[in-house]
Design goal:
Blueprint: E1 4-6, H1 20-26, H2 32-45, H3 55-62, H4 66-78, E2 82-87, E3 90-94, H5 112-121, H6 130-143, H7 147-161, H8 167-179, H9 185-209, H10 217-229, H11 234-241, H12 248-260, H13 266-274, H14 276-290, H15 298-311, H16 315-327, H17 333-345, H18 351-375, H19 383-395, H20 400-408, H21 415-427, H22 433-448, H23 461-467, H24 471-478
Length: 479
């Protein structure tokens, strides 16, 4: 290996060219030995294949020790003028002044062994681009992984892609593995073994979709994502293959859609793909019934239709709910979703249950309209009206006739007055019209009675004694 060589963008011109910027900006910062080493190194760069391009020749020519030469190159590296890629054997790359800022300097003694093993991964191929080493250094520093881990990943990529594999591809693979938590040698080894085990399964998938090209690293990444990240088993993936053609990327789109719609098993995937058109048509139907519009039904299916279907609802049943929503000025899917969830919590799921529920609701609305008419109100039935009526009948236990009777006692008022009167009757356990008539008559007398004033009347002794009641009389009156 040559001691010195030009970096990227430098040329072997057959003579030494010293840049003016080196003389003007840097030469005064260096010792005499460093300047000599720099100039002689430039000279050696012009003859990379010469046997004289060696550390021994440089030491002899300048009468310097190995330690002095390395110290000089360290000084030059600190200024970004050279990069020391290996100490044993010593390997130096020169950079032009204009390119100096493009290279971050490192303590290359830290990566000396890495540099040698890196080239061994490529079967001894010389890496002439200094930026290649810098990219690997940057990656290790930023991701905080050991050189051994990165070297194992590099070796795997070379085995898969050959010596021509690009640095960007290797770092992309390494970055992906690190994001998956693969940071140790054992974890990398396990991932590589896993990929080898998935190889035969992936080949079966490739045959199923009619893929004829070779399996790539990216294909293996997809299979790992489907199985490890998304949780599909091999049979589920093969089920999705029935709707995919030629590429694993198309299969990835199908599996992504299945995953979002929680179709995870082979049976669920087959059912979802078979009924996908029905789901889309159902989404269009529901949207129209609500009186709204969506350009893309896919999010509607994913967010609403599929979850509703999975709860046990049919498109016909959902259509009935959507019609109810529209009649009540509910036009947003999220509002309908709230109603569906309420019905689900009450066990109202099948078409028959939904029909019965809304038939009952319609009958209740007719009664509520009658109550509004009795009160003298001319407006539509509201949700609050329904909630009140449901409370009076289901929870408080009043009959419809009883509620109508109380409404007649509340003419000119509103539903809150009916609630107030029914609450009074409930408190007294009065549930018949006859008892309610007596109660309201008594309440009316009490209400119209003149307020007591001690100055209104004067009692003589006999009148006072006659007005007194025993405790027994009081209890009898209260009863």
């Amino acid at each position: 290996m040559a001691l010195c060589c030009f970096g990227r963008g430098e040329e072997n011109l057959g003579y030494i060219m010293v840049e003016n910027d080196f003389i003007n900006s840097y030469m005064s910062d260096f010792s005499g030995n460093t300047v000599k080493v720099y100039l002689y190194g430039l000279y050696l760069c012009s003859m990379p294949l010469s046997k004289d391009n060696s550390l021994e020749h440089l030491m002899d020519s300048l009468s310097l020790s190995k330690e002095q030469v390395i110290e000089s190159f360290n000084d030059l590296q600190e200024k970004g003028l050279v990069t020391i890629y290996s100490f044993d054997p010593l390997s130096i790359q020169y950079h032009s002044i204009k390119n100096r800022m493009h290279y971050k300097t490192y303590d290359t003694s830290k990566y000396a062994d890495f540099n040698i093993q890196l080239e061994e991964c490529f079967e001894g191929k010389v890496i002439s681009n200094p930026n290649t080493f810098i990219q690997y250094y940057d990656f290790m520093e930023s991701s905080n992984i050991s050189p051994e881990v990165l070297l194992m990943i590099i070796k795997h990529c070379v085995d898969q892609k050959g010596k021509g594999v690009s640095t960007s591809y290797i770092l992309k693979v390494a970055g992906s593995w690190i994001n998956d938590g693969i940071r140790s040698l054992s974890a990398v080894e396990q991932r590589i073994q896993q990929r080898e085990l998935n190889s035969s399964a992936l080949k079966e998938v490739a045959v199923a979709i009619g893929k004829t090209s070779a399996i790539t690293e990216e294909d293996t990444d997809l299979y790992i994502k489907w199985t490890n990240n998304w949780g599909f088993d091999h049979s589920a993936i093969l089920a999705a293959c029935k709707k995919s053609t030629k590429t694993l990327q198309k299969l990835d789109i199908i599996l992504d859609e299945c995953f979002k719609n929680t179709a995870m098993s082979a049976q669920e995937i087959e059912s979802y793909l078979k009924n996908k058109k029905k789901l889309n048509d159902g989404a269009v139907t529901i949207i129209k019934l609500l009186g709204t519009w969506y350009d893309n039904t896919a999010p509607v299916v994913e967010t609403y239709i599929s979850p509703w279907i999975q709860k046990g609802y049919s498109i016909d049943g959902l259509s009935v709910i959507a019609q109810y929503c529209f009649k009540n000025s509910i036009k947003k899917l999220e509002q309908m979703d709230s109603i569906v969830n309420t019905l689900y919590s009450q066990g109202i799921i099948t078409d028959n249950q939904i029909d019965n529920y809304y038939t009952s609701l319609q009958k209740n609305d007719e009664i509520i309209k009658q109550l509004l008419s009795i009160l003298g109100l001319t407006r539509i039935v509201t949700i609050n009206d329904r909630d009140s009526f449901k409370c009076w009948t289901n929870e408080w236990g009043f009959s419809v006739d009883m509620i109508k009777f109380v409404a007649e006692k509340s003419i000119g008022s509103n539903f809150s007055e009916i609630s107030k009167k029914l609450s009074q009757l409930k408190e007294k356990s009065i549930y018949t019209i006859e008892d309610a008539t007596s109660f309201f008559a008594s309440s009316k007398i009490t209400k119209n009675a003149k307020s007591f004033n001690k100055n209104d009347r004067k009692y003589d002794k006999e009148q006072a004694e006659a007005s007194l009641l025993s405790s027994e009389d009081i209890l009898n009156l209260e009863a």
